[in-house]
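Thread title: Can someone regenerate the structure for this chain?

I was given the following input by a collaborator and told the matching structure tokens would be attached. They weren't. Posting the sequence so someone can regenerate them.
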Amino acid sequence: MQYTVYTFQVSPIIPGNDLVIASLSELAFDSFQETEEGVEAYVPSHLDNEELQNALLELTIEDVTIHFSKKEMEDINWNAEWESQFDPIDVDNLCRVRAPFHEAKAGVLDLIIEPKMSFGTGHHATTYLVLQKMFELDFKDKEVIDMGSGTAVLAIAAEKLGAKKVWAIDIDEWAYENAIENLERNNCSKIEALLGVEDLLEGKTADIFIANINRNILLAQAKHYENSTQSGAPLLLSGFYENDVPALLEAFSAFEWKETRVRDEWTMLYLLKK
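Best answer:
Regenerated them for you:
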């Protein structure tokens, strides 16, 4: 199939890339790749029509600057291209996050994820940080919330680590459908994938709360997380840079700071509900 690639220059990258991808996923684009300057979005050339181009010209995201260009792609083997772009994530000697076409690694937790959307360098780093910390926590018989669950990789890890119930929540329908596929792929039975926003947290209280999203969303939803986390329970936050930490700690003042971890400039906070 012939594809057209749109190259988007996005500023700021965080949270711009996530917001741009979320907007583009509602159009005809079917795959994305994050770059150092923004996002490359791919659309079947026969769907690259005037309607799509008008929608892109009208695309605006508050506080995010977007410029784009496009070019026709060669007719290539997209399965092979995808495989060449996606590397497994090895978290110490604890687990491997891999696509179905990667080999399993003996002696570690095997998490099989086939993303429908971009799984760029930032996602690799934040996923690594959160998974690394998850192995230090006790998930046995715990109820867990994974907010902004995306591929559901963290929710799947929570079940494999012993959680008795996991709610995996994401606002994006594409991510939601992808999560369901990944739950089946990993033989999960204790995870409920939910499509929606923070309102879905009402009536749910977590023994462990995980949110790997982005700075702006975390700041906006802080009170909801507070209301849905048990006293003394861990909260793992990621999806932001180290210079975002002061603002996040102020927003999450109902939690006690315990630890900050950084990888490739991406950051994770480990907090406990007071």
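Residues 62 and 104 are 42 Å apart (CA to CA).
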